[in-house]
Amino acid sequence: MSNLALSVSDALHQHIKEALTAAGGWLPFDQFMHLALYTPGLGYYTNGAQKFGSLPQSGSDFVTAPQLSPLFGQCVGEQVAQALLASGTRCVYEFGAGTGALALQICELLPRLSIGLERYFIIEVSSELRARQQAALAALGDTVQWLDALPEQMQGVIVGNEVLDAMPVKLLARLQGQWHERGVVLGEDGSLAWHDRASELRPPIEIAGSHDYLTEIHPQAEGFVRTLAAHLSRGAALLIDYGFPEAEYYHPQRHMGTVMCHYQHQADPHPLDKVGLKDITAHVNFTGVALAAQDAGLDVAGYATQGRFLMNCGLLQKMESLAPLQRALVAKLVNEHEMGELFKVLALGKGMDWEPIGFSQGDRSHTL
Q1: Residue 166 carries which DSSP code?
Q2: Under DSSP, is residue 358 helix (H, G, I), strand (E, B) or coil?
Q3: Separation of alpha carbons 86 and 81, rounded Å
Q4: 3-state secondary structure of 297
Q5: Which domains does the chain have, with CATH numbers?
Q6: pLDDT confidence of 264, banded at 50, 70, 90?
Q7: Helix, strand, or coil (residue 341)
Q8: DSSP code per residue over 287-333
Q9: Scanning 11, 62, 212, 333, which has its CA 20 to 30 A from the CA of 358?
């Protein structure tokens, strides 16, 4: 770990300490997670450190699907193209565009499908990542534009790949039969520590048993899709992430929660350690997201595993000309024991009548 990384982490720790003092000594986990990830210049997504890459030697912490193979973006682009045609719109809005790889893959595909794209808008909270995206997408000219805020009205297709998992969550702990909200305090040695407070908050469904149980609720992710619904007047949204329907998410045996950190391609469950240097994520409760979307006026158009979605969008045909090494990377996207089963795709729509190709087989909407 470099001296620069240590100094950033120390500065963020001090910032969080000041926030704890201002809050009376206790912060709920969602507020801590927001500070750890998004504090300007210091948080994980804003401090300039390398994040995306295939090897830890690069200083990266994880790899995302668009980096494994351009076929990922080409398959997503097939679904985007169909949604643009079905909605009669010509704009794409991507949230949290990472390295810009997915945007590039979609923008290169659409002209080959005779889709006249007017604008590809990117909404990115990290100025450091925005700069990387601008460099990666410079050849596309003014087709790609960055937005600081959502337009009052959007017409087009919204894309969010691994966006929901980075949204802060609340932690709930059932201890000796009583529910608590888990938050963060300063320990006697000045380090960050856990502290639970009795709470009226509950998971959305009853969890059988009386054993101790740790889990999350997702008010920010649900608020995000409600905001999308308020701004989207016509079009679709594709949300791709790892997670489960509600019955699986809150299964009695899943008693350790899903919060996970990523650092140099290693996963661990310790978000209070190396603050600012590690990604912090939580799996998505897709039922909660789908219900929030429906309540806000969006239609649930499909829900499937990433593997099934990609195959429905023509992945097998696109793989035919690949070399063996490239095929092995693509296999990670669809294999059940890798990304194919854990990652899901949720399609939402508004003001359009369509049957999205990505869910033509293996649609699991009935499990939500």
Answers
A1: G
A2: helix
A3: 9
A4: coil
A5: 3-170+217-367 (3.40.50.12710)
A6: confident
A7: helix
A8: HHHHHHHHHTT-EEEEEEEHHHHHHHTTHHHHHTT--HHHHHHHHHH
A9: 62
